[in-house]
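#lab-general

N.A. 3:47 PM
ok so I finally got the sequence cleaned up, no stray characters, all 487 residues accounted for. can someone with queue access submit it? mine expired

B.Y. 3:52 PM
send it over

N.A. 3:53 PM
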Amino acid sequence: MSDQNQDYLLVAAIDFGTAYSGWAFSTRTDHSKDPLKVCANTWGAGNLMSLKTSTCVLFDQNKKFHSFGFEAEDAYSDLALDNKHGDYFFFRRFKMKLFDKLHLRRKFMLEDEMGRRMSAMDVFSDCIKYLKNHLTQKCLQQLPDTCDSDIRWVLTVPAIWNDTSKQFMREAAAKAGISDENLLIALEPEAASLCCRHLPMNAIGGGSCNFVPFAPGSKYLVFDAGGGTVDITVHEVQPSGSLKELYKANGGNWGGTYIDIAFRNLLADIVGNDVMDDFQATQMMDYIDLFREFEVKKRNFKNEMTEKITFKVPIALNEGFKQKKGMDIKDHIKTKPKYEKSINWIGDKLRMEAHVAKGLFADACESVAKHLKTLFTEGQVKDVPTILMVGGFSESPMLQDVIKRTMPDKKIIIPADPALAVLKGAVIFGHDPSVIQERRCRYTYGVRSSHRFNERIHPESKKFVDDDGDILCSDIFDRHVQKWAAC
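B.Y. 4:20 PM
back already:
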């Protein structure tokens, strides 16, 4: 923090999510009174109102930024209705493209929904720039004399991302106009942890009335289930109130969008992938509306439900299928034995048995359960008594049930509005980054160096004589930081 701007007036955080993104800020004065008091924006799409907007971005024919979020979805849908979308670039849920990209290049190209390519750096930086400018405009309404140097920015990233992807986001932020000396990178589960430690007891679900969740010495696992990834870290509260990481960040790509993919695959299995691709390409508004409705429906899926689930499906999908296959979908389903008794297609309604709907969660939930079982065999994690569930996917009763059944001996805590925990926590982190006292290193770091040549251990091929006449061995790895290893 020695190079960071210490004379800031407010902290502004951008939570750049796989499915949804948002921003929030608070002044130093407000933070000192109530760390959870933050200003955020309310975004709207039809009847849907949210403190986050869809992570979608639209560029015009010249690859110039057009719109972001729900506005981008609606604008692209309108263009598609008029058949004017062909030369536009529409990206959605593209953040996961950076996941585990160890050899990521600055010239890395992203493919949009229709396979058109643009520079990933341009796409990410323009999105960050939009959120930055949107926040700044709102901020100036409340604090009209604020200038760039008064703001400390925080950008969230998954803890399981490698250093290359994190550096990519830092450079994208710089290109968006956020100077490096005013920028902090917050790890998403850490930010969520910081938010939850400030919550009043009546905002915690699953805890007894005499349970103090974050007292000094307490240990807990942060389970951050977002749109793209499940991000896990383990913390211990130090006597000073700061946090020590007990186990390296881990997780996988089992977030909420995994369920959306399963739903699309189900539809594609019924009507054919060619029909789904054509539906997406030519009826984008209907395609977006279909998945918006599914997003609302899936949040209420429960393991104990037995009744059929009904989805409204755009007529255009059936019309496209009939044009290609010569029959209605409802008649086609009757010819598929695995669906004829479990799925009905009536007009613009898709009705499926509860077990089919719940099955959409199977792969993601099984991956989570398997990972947690393995994780809790590790020495540093085995005795951790509490799991803190945050992130938008943690709102799912299906996922909650899986965690409870997988870890019956653990206390499960789910805060109110778990989807906002990362965003609020990022603001809190910006006000006091030193609260994260210790992290576990995922890699060994060092530099290439030359040492005095030792014929017993050094290969002759690396032997050379320097300008002073000393005989040295080149290309020796000089270790600066040792990778953390579990005991």
